[in-house]
Amino acid sequence: MLFVQNKTKNSVFDKENARVKGGVMMNIAIFGGTMDPFHCGHLQIVEHLCDLFDLVLLVPNNVSPFKGEELLVDKEIRYQMLCLQVERMRAQNAQRGDKICIERCEMDREPPSYTIDTLLYLKKKHPKDGLYLCLGSDAYEGFAGWKDSQKILELCNLLLVPRQGASVDCEGVPVFEGGHQKLSKLGVPILQVSSSEARVDIAFGCFDKLPPVIAKSIQEQNLYADYAGIVKQYPSYGLSEGRIGHIHRVAQTALQIALNVHGVVRHKVVMAALLHDIAKRTPQAQIVLTKQQEKFLLALSPNIVHAFLGAEIAQQKFGVSDLDVLNAIRHHTTGRAEMSDLEKIIYLADMVEPRRTMPGVESVRDLALNGRLDEAMCIGLGQTIDNLRMRGEKIDARTTQAYAHFQRLTQAK
Ligand SMILES: [Fe+2]
Ligand SMILES: [Fe+2]
Predict the structure, then answer these.
(1) 70 CA to middle of ligand 1, Å?
(2) 307 C-alpha vs ligand 2 centroid, how far in Å?
(3) Would 362 be classed as within a structural domain?
(4) Long-range pairs of 299-304 with CB within 8 A, sequence gap ≥ 24
(5) Residue range of the domain that includes 154
(6) Tell me, what CATH number does 122's domain have?
(7) What pLDDT digit, counting tens, does each position of 60-78 carry?
(8) CA 314 to chain centre
(9) What does the pLDDT read at residue 270?
């Protein structure tokens, strides 16, 4: 195990070895994840763990086999930032900070990285201690499908970190109070932040979801710059401050909806959200269109042209080639029958982002944030059609087809 530099005199290294050598059993919390980046939600959990456990092992992942998307920052840079954060915690509160160790075992293993391998390694190092694996309640939902899940349970106890909106029921799970509990949960409310949301914020120049040390390090090294590269181009596409704020909120809302939708790649959610209104103020002439495309756009209502044009801009100017992302941009105003989950997420996020106040939006927002996408689509499309009728505006055929589709689907359930 490697430890952070500049250890204080009574470092956890000495304490840990003394206790293990002396045969005294410790309760050890294992907190893993990509920590890409380490955010205020992580910090809050780690502080609670320090109050409850003798030792807290932070285990940054190399690549998570479940994420299916590339990490945005190199593992060594993530490790260095984590070291800086732990140093800061030690300086601020030695009682807590001295209990924290950074464990490199997953980083130094070739991916894919499996929890069972980490636990076998840690059990060998801490044979007499009680190991407690921290799991988000959302991750616990899929735990049975993990490699050697039964063996994991033989090697350690599970400590659930309740997450708002996760369908797994933590109600009956006892709160951890020390001692030996095979399944328990943290009994404190945890800040609901995700690394994906923090990365989106960074692109918009907002760092308040990050501990100051991490924020400073990200700014100094210009990390997570890919999304910022898109945001920087908004003014050249004529987007106002108000529109940019809307896009920021749509991206955050889309990520929150995606939390309860299995199998959606968050990077695609962000790309579609960041580009969904890119053409809101762009004259058609700025990009190359075929005669057929021009004819197609001319036949559309003016308020939906930007969605179809936006998909072309995303492809031609931002190099987006993923069909699902392009379709999510293309159909974010009209919807269509047979939408993918990504398309539904972007459509709904655009409709229910926090500043939207039209009548009935709360019920659509609740359904969407609880992962009930088809019901949310059905009600949302119905409201859109009613509004368009009231204003005497043309209703696109894709919208009526989508509404009929989601009505059939939800009635059949
Ligand atoms: Fe739009
Ligand atoms: Fe929008």
Answers:
(1) 28
(2) 9
(3) yes
(4) 300/396, 301/393, 301/394, 301/396, 303/333, 303/393, 304/333, 304/334, 304/396
(5) 12-185
(6) 3.40.50.620
(7) 988 654 555 655 788 899 9
(8) 22
(9) 96
